[in-house]
Amino acid sequence: MPQKYGQNFLTDKNIANNIVNAANLTKQDEVLEIGPGKGILTKIILSQSKYLTAVEIDNKLFHKLNNYITLNNIKNIKVINGNFLKYNVPTTKLKIISNLPYNIGTAIIQKILPLENWSCAILMLQREVARRLSAHTETKSYGYISIFTSYYAECKILFDVSPKCFNPQPKVVSSVIKLINKNQKQPEAIFFEFIKHFFSMRRKTILNCLASFKHLELEKNSALQIINACNLNPLLRPDKLSTLDFFRLTNEMKKRIIYRL
Length: 261
Ligand code: SAM
Hints:
Elements: E1 9-10, H1 13-21, E2 30-34, H2 40-48, E3 51-56, H3 59-71, E4 77-81, E5 94-99, H4 105-112, E6 118-126, H5 127-133, H6 144-152, E7 153-161, E8 166-167, E9 174-181, H7 189-199, H8 206-211, H9 220-229, H10 243-256
Parallel strand pairs: 2-3, 2-5, 3-4, 5-6
Antiparallel strand pairs: 1-8, 6-9, 7-9
Helix pairs in contact: 1-2, 9-10
Bound molecules: S-adenosylmethionine (SAM).
């Protein structure tokens, strides 16, 4: 079993039904599935949707799934043999469903969230990652990826799934999450870089974080003025700041300084 592909196949049909049902599919919906594997979700999606595009990296699984489709004369699916991280996602309106390959789960999430044409995504990933995606300020799980997620989507943990529901069994509990696209404009690239920088120093004060941001040449005093203008306490740690606080900081920073990219 090539573990590099994060291949833990779901074997529990009830869980598979619950995952697909969470997307509330209709015969008008086009769906994207990442990593169909042996097709447990794929077959349910096909019976409930208009069209499915499935992207599978593993050559053998791709051929098996294609044989099944040909044998059963299924017309409403296209299976692509490739790496989803390098795949150009179609621009038609989509719902996304996936039992994600856990080794690249966050990379996949960072690829799909900024896309404009998805409406909802039902994803299974490690419980710990699900908690980070949906975390709120002042919790241990809160960090860069929580803000990234909440910027683009509403994120809700639907239910947990025991390792017993997979073959081979993963070492950790999984969770299924539902993301709803907020249809936000792309922020300036500096916005997420800024937040990433703060959380790379999450035990430092926000004053130190701001003063050491590499795209700025800020004296501590100017950093303090920016923080004061946002009515924030300079001694706070980054995990106390909401997405809105980071917006205010970025805007205040832009007003005062020309930053280097
Ligand atoms: N959907 C199946 C299920 O629920 O049993 C399989 C889920 S398994 C956790 C992840 C699947 O993603 C595997 O089939 C694996 O080969 C595939 N995969 C891994 N990395 C991938 C990538 N970069 N692009 C596309 N598929 C990938």
